[in-house]
Amino acid sequence: MPLIPIRQYGDPVLKARTREVEEIDGALVGLIESMIETMYAAPGAGLAANQVGVQRRLFVYDAGEGARVVINPRIVESDGEWAYEEGCLSVPGLSWEIVRPNAVHLVGLDVDGNEISIEAEEFEGRVFQHELDHLDGVLLVERLQEEQRKEALKILRGRALDLDAADPDGLSSLFAR
Ligand code: ZN
Hints:
Bound molecules: zinc ion
CATH superfamily of the largest domain: Peptide deformylase
Strand order of the largest sheet: 1-2-3-6-7
CATH class of the largest domain: Alpha Beta
């Protein structure tokens, strides 16, 4: 299965809410396999479908027990608070300490269409919340405190300007938006 380019900060596909999966067919299974390979190659612990340009509600992850997929995921309950240094494959090379609920109860479907229900905390719970945000068109930058966020946007805007200077043909407009 081929690797798929991971969309980067500034790509509008990352800002749009994804749609429910209606049918788990061969094409979707192929996409899931490619997403898992792409996640490991990056390397990362999670990858949402819209990070590879597909506007559907599913993500793959590996929180230490092998690759899994969750289709049409929903968080039905969350509890506690946990601070964790969080990064994102679509915002490479940067990370911030972000406080989110510690424990979450996630429901969804597996690749065979069976209902799954997972109670997760700490790292696994964080991966679920991060990937769910992606599927709702939310990037981790939007979860930062105001000062952190200003600093982050300065860095990200600087990157867009660097790309403009290095790329007079304007290919970087993909990133700069
Ligand atoms: Zn991410």
